[in-house]
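Milestone 3.1: sequence recovery, worked example.
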């Protein structure tokens, strides 16, 4: 699929703003995490997205921060930049959901919550107001946020994504690793990510309070 220059520039600008915002919260420790925004048309077998390049300090802005890749996670332009090591996970989420943006961060609370409920395979949240951020309006709604094992072999994780996705929950957690949150666009993905992080902290603090 051909990508217009202005589409590429718009995606990079969105990622730059989101990166600065989340970096200021300390959500990218030690160059961790990755962000992507889909660019141009979409078919499950053919799409393009802009993603953070590997190993960059996300607290600073440089011309080498982002690149375009295809549905297989391969760069679409000549470049020496390497896409994030977890690009294949983004590819699978896009293929399966048609999302417009995916944000992945490592925080203390998403790690703690994932370990607390790792054996259960999902993080339960019961009746918390911010569940509404996922457009779930049931009174006293209950949700389960899926957890996947954190294998060193990224393709092995990517193979599990399809079985883990819950249509009304726009996120998956890797155990002792971090959250992948997505949405129809960057604004929605950011809203979902912020809601997940609030819920992770709530779940963990409630657990500690009740011990």
């Amino acid at each position: 699929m051909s990508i217009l220059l202005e589409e590429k520039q718009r995606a990079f600008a969105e990622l730059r703003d989101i990166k600065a915002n989340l970096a200021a919260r300390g959500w990218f420790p030690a160059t961790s995490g990755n962000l992507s925004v889909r660019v141009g048309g979409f078919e499950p077998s053919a799409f393009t997205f802009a993603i953070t390049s590997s190993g960059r300090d996300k607290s600073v802005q440089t011309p080498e921060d982002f690149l375009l890749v295809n549905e297989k996670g391969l760069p679409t332009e000549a470049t020496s930049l390497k896409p994030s090591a977890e690009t294949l996970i983004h590819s699978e989420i896009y293929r399966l959901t048609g999302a417009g943006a995916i944000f992945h961060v490592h925080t203390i609370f998403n790690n703690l919550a994932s370990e607390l409920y790792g054996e259960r395979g999902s993080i339960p949240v019961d009746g918390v107001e911010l569940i509404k951020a996922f457009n779930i309006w049931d009174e006293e709604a209950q949700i389960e946020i899926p957890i996947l094992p954190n294998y060193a072999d990224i393709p092995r994780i990517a193979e599990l994504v399809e079985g883990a996705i819950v249509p009304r929950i726009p996120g998956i957690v890797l155990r002792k690793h971090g959250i992948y949150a997505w949405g129809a666009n960057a604004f929605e993905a950011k809203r979902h990510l912020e809601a997940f992080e609030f819920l992770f902290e709530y779940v963990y603090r409630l657990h500690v309070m009740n011990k």
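The longest strand covers residues 34-43. Strands lie at 34-43, 46-52, 66-70, 101-105, 122-126, 142-148, 171-174, 178-183.
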